[in-house]
Amino acid sequence: xxTTAAVRGLSCTACGESADPGVERCPDCGAVLVVDxxxxxxxxxxxxxxxxxxxxxxIDEGATPLVAVPDLAAELGVESVAVKDEGRNPTGSLADRxxxxxxxxxxxxxxxxxxxxxxxxxxxSAAAYAARADIxxxxxxxxxxxFLNKAxxxxxxxxxxxxxxxxxxxxxxxAESDEAFASVAPGHPFRIAGATGLALxxxxxxxxAAPDTVVHPAGHGETVVGLQRxxxxxxDAGLADAxxxxxxxxxxxxxxxxxxxxxxxxxxxxxxxxxxxxxxLEVPDPAAGTAAIDAIDATDGDGVAVPDKEILQxxxxxxxxxxxxxxxxxxxxxxxxxxxxxxxFASDDEVVLVNPVAxxxxxxxxxxxxxxxxx
Amino acid sequence: xxTTAAVRGLSCTACGESADPGVERCPDCGAVLVVDxxxxxxxxxxxxxxxxxxxxxxIDEGATPLVAVPDLAAELGVESVAVKDEGRNPTGSLADRxxxxxxxxxxxxxxxxxxxxxxxxxxxSAAAYAARADIxxxxxxxxxxxFLNKAxxxxxxxxxxxxxxxxxxxxxxxAESDEAFASVAPGHPFRIAGATGLALxxxxxxxxAAPDTVVHPAGHGETVVGLQRxxxxxxDAGLADAxxxxxxxxxxxxxxxxxxxxxxxxxxxxxxxxxxxxxxLEVPDPAAGTAAIDAIDATDGDGVAVPDKEILQxxxxxxxxxxxxxxxxxxxxxxxxxxxxxxxFASDDEVVLVNPVAxxxxxxxxxxxxxxxxx
Lengths: 375, 375
What we know:
homodimer; 375 residues; alpha/beta; Rossmann fold; 2 domains; six-stranded mixed sheet; 17% strand; globular
């Protein structure tokens, strides 16, 4: 596989073994792989793009704004709060950074079809990038997947299997499928690499001054892993001088990563009966969960679990103070409030929240919350 | 009102009279006003921002990508096609550029509440920017306004009057309202100035090489006017060497600007019974219609009216080739196809399409088109 000079290969997050960029999991131990970068070859955020121009698949993802939210900083009693608005990606979610790379990797390996299970946004993004690369895609989504995601998968010409039940059922249908496709499922090393790009871009937005804290609403934990790798890479490359603490925020009704991190456990415990209104985060058995907990620990971060009701209120409050966020992004706002309540921050802390999904994509959830308040 | 050095004041698009930045229409003749810039003070796209930092209201609008769509260029037989993806603004529409400025102007004048009629996206944007400025807002929307827009107006804490009927009824309710608010209605000079910023940014994206043609889906014609002013300003400022031809694309069931431009008429004829699936463009009596026709003529451009069915198919095709676009953006794709059919382009033409609204915001329209095709 053709990669840039910055890429040395893949390495395993569990056993450290090296692997070829063409594989999906560690051939030795089966754990999640990440891209292993040569820090000496990284002098800017763009340098961590793993593929040369001729092998790139892009709809101009990234370059999202870091929006200052001073009213939230005042409420929390910290120096600054900014939202990295990943809703402003091509299909309205952070997933685009990962699928741009994972689809490019699949094309490089000669695939003419990619497949993934998804709570919704991933299937939409996979279909968009596959269409852009002129290959086919197949998404496995649960019946509760939002209409918007299902509609846009079809609009992009993607194939879709709507699996009766919840996300775990979609994962099972994906695993049991005998259809031919290259897997771009959660935990894919190049999906994680999308978040490494996010980390470097976020630092570049701040002229390489690392924030003290990043709060991210976690699902599979891919972004948590990629962020930590990116921050560490920036330090190794001499671009930044510190790695921010990473906090994984999750709905308390489905918080396998946040609960394990908070308990000091090494691995997430799969959630038997997940039931949160925040569909994109209803991931009971996260693909990169163990690696995410390691990443959180490496940054001296933590997990924070918050109730759905606080998440929805935080989303609405967030929309009044800063950029549009939905229930998914509201999980970061509710999380940062819970962290402030337990005195996790100093008064001079600079805090970045990641908004993974455009607020407009989750308008129905926010409106029904207002309805429940009689508004 | 506090403005930057680049702003000389306002001038009337009809009689040329100067006006104070605080007024909404020409005090002499009642026509639409535009910001009058001092070209000598404009050395970059940022220089045309009319307000100094302390008077700016922003959620980091703009800085949207110009996405190359080579497959569409090949289909049309032109040198290049790129989509300026305005769906990647804070609330998912081009309206954000205008409301950032119009709300800032209202705040500068001491307003604590703004009001506007809207087909939907404008009300959402107005509510978002009013919330960001910590003032109130009131949107007048027709009952056919999409749920998503109505929901997000409420989420931003905006007040809303859902007027039974179509857009013209919302305009009437707005005009008859005796509530106190500063008007940020269509045709507002600072809403038009938002599109002037778009023109300069688009040129900067291309390193100041003007494209041959820009195709824009027109509603009120504000963006057409602002684009032409911006391109002309860039030439006056010595930044660019040509003004692109501007084509206004509209659904044929509601094409007051496109029809008048195509007929060589000086003014749009209001449409008695508008009926298009493209809600944001169902504007039967455009506020900046006459000025838009003048702007089109000044660039040697034209109007192009296209049927809803072609618009929806063009939107779906667009989503397979480039960034996500909805029915509104699909109007530009259908328009550029119709223009190519009538040999409007040379083989070395560089064409830019404006996508005014995020595709995800109009997923339902695109999905029902697929349904009508039995998909």
